Amino acid sequence: MNKIEHIGIAVKNMDISCSLYEQLLGAACYKKELVASEGVNTAFFKTGQNKIELLSATVADSPIAKFLERKGEGIHHIAFDVEDIVVEMDRLKAAGFVLLNEQPKRGADNKLVCFVHPKGTNGVLVELCQEIKA
């Protein structure tokens, strides 16, 4: 894993939360994106080398909606940038980690993604991210 790619934060209201984070970080949201396959709206902020991703549900049965119902607003996941997501997935499976995806899938911000089950990572949902090269 190369670096922390971003921290994902689940929010109930994207408009209110975007305004809050713009004030908090002193930076405007640089990208909003719908990931229809996951039932989620995303908004990205950058401060220095760090990125924050806000996530809000678009449908009641989405993973984010279920997370918000169980835990409320707050940190949802930590994402790590990887050079080759398939190699990293194979390495983690061989080490005994449980992956939530059998294959990488397209995520927000031009990334291939895969999630690692939080039961094997001390309760933290971990996301692997690989930039999709043109």
TrEMBL record:
Alphabetized Gene3D superfamilies for the sequence: 2,3-Dihydroxybiphenyl 1,2-Dioxygenase, domain 1
MF annotations from Gene Ontology: metal ion binding; methylmalonyl-CoA epimerase activity
A Pfam family reported for this protein in Swiss-Prot or TrEMBL: Glyoxalase_4
Cleavable signal peptide: none
UniProt domain VOC: residue ranges: 3-131
Record keywords, A-Z: Metal-binding
GO biological process, one term: L-methylmalonyl-CoA metabolic process
Database matches in NCBIfam families: metmalonyl_epim (TIGR03081)
PANTHER family (UniProt xref): METHYLMALONYL-COA EPIMERASE, METHYLMALONYL-COA EPIMERASE, MITOCHONDRIAL
Similarity section: Belongs to the methylmalonyl-CoA epimerase family.
Name of the protein described by the UniProt record: Methylmalonyl-CoA epimerase
Source organism of this protein record: Pedobacter heparinus (strain ATCC 13125 / DSM 2366 / CIP 104194 / JCM 7457 / NBRC 12017 / NCIMB 9290 / NRRL B-14731 / HIM 762-3)
